[in-house]
Amino acid sequence: MTRSQRLWWLAVLITLTAALWQRYSGPTYPTRVKGDIGGVTVKSKLLRTHSINGDLPVTVTLQGPDPAVSGAVVWRRFPSQDPWQDLPLSASGQDLQAHIPAQPAAGKVEYRIELRRGDRQLVLPAEEAVVARFKGDVSLPLLLIHVLVIFSAMLWSNRAGLEAISAGDALTRQAWTTVALLAAGGLVLGPLVQKAAFGAYWTGWPLGEDLTDNKLAVAVLAWLVAALRIRAGGGRVAAAAAALITLVVFTIPHSLHGSTLDYQTGTTVSG
Measured on CA atoms in the order 59, 68, 119, 83, is the torsion positive or negative? Predict the structure, then answer.
């Protein structure tokens, strides 16, 4: 295996690790809960993102059908001071189900499950309620292209950073490829996806505090500076720093501090 191949494999490993971390640590990944009530094991996968074109399903799965277990989904709009509302859970085989009414794009709800069996009670999750955000539907081709380009940018960034550290001679090409991919994925395709999902092209600085927009802008700027430094005859330190910055950027959970509908004003805010 050549030096270049080894560095590419290392870049792939770093990229996949960061991608998995971002996926499972983000605020859109479902919350899995499990508990026991009166000897009956119950579990649920609580969704934290859903389409505006349908009610949010909440399903509780019992270890076995048990008509003695009943309960409700307790929910309200978020953030708000609305009174909590109860949605009775209906039995369907081994499942208990309810549906929270759909909200406008960027609208959020907070909810939890309250179960009863005789004099026993169980609340899931036991601590804070789960927050789910509604979004518009993004066309599958646009979403796939965006994901492909943005993770290609991350891969090239990692590879260029390794090239800078190992004093390779392909740094110039890799740096400019990284700039192009980051700009296309984060500053062109990203806003198109966000427009379809939440009705706004850009909610980062100076218009808002959306971390997804802001972190990608920082990564593009870092690599642009590095690429210009490399063209001027140096820039290996700048490239290594840009790769590290981009890696940190991609470990920040996606959609953190994203668009949120303010129910009092009817406007969408971020941060």
Answer: positive
Phi, then psi, of 110 in degrees rounded to 5: -115, 140
Going by the DSSP 8-state scheme, the letter that residue 166 receives in this structure is: T
Tell whether 110 and 154 lie within a shared domain.
no
CB neighbour burial string for 42-72, b if at least 16 within 10 angstroms, e if fewer: bebebbbbbebeeebebbbebeeebeebebb
pTM, full prediction: 0.87
d(CA 11, CA 246) in angstroms, rounded, equals 13
Adjacent-strand bridge partners of 88 = 72
Per-residue pLDDT of 13-54, as tens digits, reads: 999 998 888 888 878 889 999 999 988 999 999 999 999 999
Residue 81 and residue 174 in one domain: no
* Residue 93 burial class via C-beta count within 10 angstroms: exposed 0-12, middle 13-18, buried 19 and up: exposed
Summarize pLDDT for 60-73 with one digit per residue, the tens. Answer: 999 877 888 999 99
pLDDT at residue 256 is higher than 70: no
**Is the pLDDT confidence value at 177 over 90?**
yes
If 0-12 CB within 10 Å is exposed, 13-18 middle and 19+ buried, where does residue 195 land? middle
Measured between alpha carbons, how far is residue 268 from residues 170, 184, 216, 258 in Å? 44, 25, 21, 10
Cβ(132)–Cβ(108) below 8 Å = yes
> Per the domain annotation, does 31 fall within a domain?
no
> Based on C-alpha coordinates, what's the Rg of the chain?
23
Residue 32: inside a domain: no
